[in-house]
Amino acid sequence: ETIDEIFDYYFTEFEIEFRKSLLDLIQSEVDYFKIEVDIDEILNKVWGTDKLNWCTRLYKHRDKWSQIVKRELKLAFIRGDNLESVLKRLDKTFKSAEKALRNLYVTEYNAVESEARYRIFKELEYKEYQYFATVDERTCETCGGLHGQVFPMSAFEVGVTAPPIHGHCRCFIVPIN
Prior knowledge:
This protein is mainly alpha-helical. Helices cover 62% and strands 7% of the residues. Helix 1 (3-33) packs antiparallel against helix 3 and helix 3 runs antiparallel to helix 4 (83-123).
């Protein structure tokens, strides 16, 4: 198998699990508020400065890490590295990829949660929502500045006035009557 085929296999498996967790998240929000929303529309919503949805961003991530692994292997071959040093470098690369993938998962999960909540709040005819940051020593300046702010529903924009504002953002929104 080629490196691309290996990445395709694992990312396809991850996509299936990730999609299921996103569906479960949306369903739990829908069940809690006892309202129906267009789940596919939420899953396909683009957000962020790159204007991608979670699935496209996942595959962009896959392509990036596939290229990094290929580059590491080419460099090892050119340098004439022994098998042990190649394996150590690849292990380090895969650990970095795993950490980045976990970050991506948390961030995309939060984006879908915000979008689902927004749709539900709107359907329930709330006019405003409030931004809440997890306030502790890790709170970033942007999220800390948004903490407690009230926004009209018309101002909702993931990454700007709704979480996630950045990777691994721990913030959330609540409706205001």
